[in-house]
Amino acid sequence: MTLVHFGPTFDKKIKPWVLPDFTNRVKEGQIAVRWNSRVTAIEQGELAITSSWREDRLKADRVYIMTGFAPSLDLLKASGVAIDPKTGIPEHDSETLETKVAGLFIAGVVVAGTMQTRYSSKTDGIMATESSRGCSDSALRRSQS
Fold first, then answer.
1. HSE (side-chain half, CA atoms, 13 Å) at 45
2. CA neighbor of 33 nearest in space, from 14, 7, 66
3. Is the predicted pLDDT of residue 108 greater than 60, yes or no?
4. Which of 20, 62, 82, 120 has the fewest CB within 10 Å, making it most exposed?
């Protein structure tokens, strides 16, 4: 697992109960980190990453986009996911959290749209991960065409 983060470290708003667990997993080598970097493309089986000093590619079978408490919906819209103009909720299957774009799942505050207090990010993350495990390679390929 690799975390790609735009800054040199987490900002001061990271949940205090998350940081020690994350820091320990980095120290143990369970999570690699690419600080001062951005994902510039998500492609079949890999990511393009750019930092101030280089461009790189990482193999990836899953990508979780974690944008914080006020997520940007631009990537979902650009991927073809309809967003309800009244609620801000992306169109998705409430059982699996998969959008109409095969292989594209949502989790966390984005699931609730402008009613962000309705959902637990942790529960949604688990549900989306479990659902994506059943997502076939052919469904992922369909989403690329």
1. 3
2. 7
3. yes
4. 20
